[in-house]
Amino acid sequence: MSTEAKQNEKIAAAVMGYGTIGSGVVEILEKNRDVIAKKVGKEIEAKYILDLREFPGTPVEHKIVHDIAAITEDPAVKIVVEAMGGVHPAYEFAKACLMTGKHVVTSNKALVAACGTELLQIAREKQVNFLFEASTGGGIPVIRTMYRSLAGEKIEEITGILNGTTNYILTKMDRCGQTFESALKEAQDLGYAERNPEADVEGHDTCRKIAILTAMATGKEVNYEDIPTEGITRITDMDFKYAEKLGRSVKLFGSSRIEGDKVTAFVAPVMIGPEHPLYSVNDVYNGIVIKGNMLGTSMYFGSGAGKLPTASAVVADMMEAAIYEGENIPLGWTEEKQEIEPWENASFRYFLRISGNSQSKKEKVTEVFPDGEIVELSGCCEFGVLTSKMSGAELNQKKAAISDVIGLIRAE
Ligand code: HSE
Fold first, then answer.
1. Is the CB–ligand 1 distance for residue 164 below 6 Å?
2. Taking a C-beta distance cutoff of 8 angstroms, is the pair 267, 253 a contact?
3. Is 194 touching ligand 1 by the criterion CB < 6 Å?
4. Which listed residue, of 68, 128, 130, 381, carries a Cα 20 to 30 Å from 327's Cα?
5. Closest by CA position to 71, among listed 21, 13, 20, 122
6. How far is the CA of 9 from the centre of ligand 1 (A)?
């Protein structure tokens, strides 16, 4: 058969959820139809769109279905996109599609973090694929990089700015001196913050993403609930005034450090200096640093959220599934469980704010943290100290010796 004739053949797909990402997928399949067909060898067409709504008068009106059976019972459908969000009924629908021998591609980190192990296992049994590039880092190709390009590495560390909304808020607080509340409102007005900003600002979104990356790195299931998670709601404009004085900034990190079988993982704001590779990742962008035992440090940067960047990653997974039709791509994520070590054992520098500014108090702080850097803001009845590196246990011991600690941020 000629290449042109093959390109006229179609692979039927279905899209579950016609919201921001689902509609982005349909748009890309249409706009980039030629390039997709050329690379896959066949055109990929969205045959069905599953949604509760009707979308009358739009080009997708005739594709809308409301019952998952329309998709699972049509053998022509080979690839299903899950872009509904949340765990239920996304899990039940994704499982039903895999069980009926269809590839499932998702952008849904909640689904992957909660049910990834089981859905990957079903995909292996059915010789199809469960792919989730868009679930972490949006349009940044980090998942595929991990299972393909970094396949021969022992991953030692993953540290990422994995949430665009919080990075936007922190950038505004840093650069424009805005308060947390006004920067959050601006992020909501611009449509960056999700319906419930809690998932972003409390670090839950980042937590699921670092759990997924850690599972990819270790090849074991990571329970995201085991990852200590702290969001950015306690970061204030005062913290940024100190950070500026120290030539530093504050970023929300999702991080895991892997030493043999031991994994320490956390989500927390971290005060970093310009020498850190993630220092210049600002606004809604995401950045991910991955250290491998042979590779050393690598970094991935780009749009971590948004309709078309995220949908672009979904479409790339659909193409991967279409190219590997009838074959399960090994991602290396098994059913074995990964323990997460208590993070008190991990070492950080710390930035502490202490109320009062008497000489005796500063002397006491210098005595407790002899390697610490004292920082003062003019006209303020408080001061800060940036400590040297120590374990959480050591910090707690030292903190007990100082009264009036009013703020604490990890630092690197
Ligand atoms: N709310 C997420 C973010 C969307 O701001 O990064 C992408 O997962």
1. yes
2. yes
3. yes
4. 68
5. 13
6. 36
